[in-house]
Amino acid sequence: MSSCYTLRMPASCGELFQGRILGEEKLISYPVNLYNYLSLEKKRGNADYIGKENCFYNLPDKMLSLIKMAACDLGITTSLLAEYSWQHSQLIPAGKGLASSTADLMLALTALSLISQKKLSCQDILDYLTAIEPTDSIIFPELTLLEQNDGSYWQQMGQPEGKVRVLALAQPGICDTLSHRKLRNKIPDVTESWQLFQQGVEEQDWGLIGKAATFSARAWQRYLYYPRLEKIITKAEKKGCLGVNIAHSGNVLGILYQPERVNIEDLKSTLHTPEINTSYPDNWEFELVKGGAEIFQDNHQQFDKINSVRTCPDNQLT
Question: Which domains, and CATH codes, for the chain?
Answer without folding.
Answer: 4-309 (3.30.230.10)
